[in-house]
Amino acid sequence: MLARIIKLAGFDVEAFTSAEAYLDSGRVAESDCLILDVDLPGMSGIELQQRLNGFSKPIPIIFVSGKMDAEIRERVLEAGAVGIFNKPFNIHSLITAIHAVGL
Fold first, then answer.
1. How far apart are CA 52 and CA 34, in angstroms?
2. Which of 27, 75, 89, 100 is 20 to 30 A (C-alpha) from 59?
3. How many domains does the chain have?
4. Distance of CA 53 to the CA centre of its chain
5. pTM (2 decimals)?
6. For position 40, which CATH number holds?
7. For 39, which DSSP code?
8. What pLDDT is stored for residue 101 in this prediction?
9. Of 95, 22, 16, the residue nearest 52 (C-alpha)
10. Strands in 1-103 per DSSP E
C-alpha cells in the first residue's frame, strides 16, 4: 500500500519482500532512497542499514516503525538515517522527507 501511495506522488518505486530480496535484486547501486521498517522478516532494517553503510555510495534511509523506542531511534540516526516515522504516520510528512533527500 505504501509503495502505491509513494508512486502516486510521482516517484519510481520498487517494493521488496525482505532485506535479503533487496540485496539479491541487483538494484542496490541504483537506489536513491530506501524506506525501511525496523522489523523486517529475516534481516532487520537496522541490520540492512549497517550492511549498506559499508558500501561506497551512501543511500539515504528513512525508517518507519511501530516499534521505535528511544534506543532504536538513536541507533539508526547515529548510523545515518535521514528520517524516522512512527506508525501510524502522516503520508505527506513522509513525502516531504523523500523530497528532502533530493528526489
1. 11
2. 89
3. 1
4. 13
5. 0.93
6. 3.40.50.2300
7. S
8. 93
9. 22
10. 34-37, 61-65, 83-86
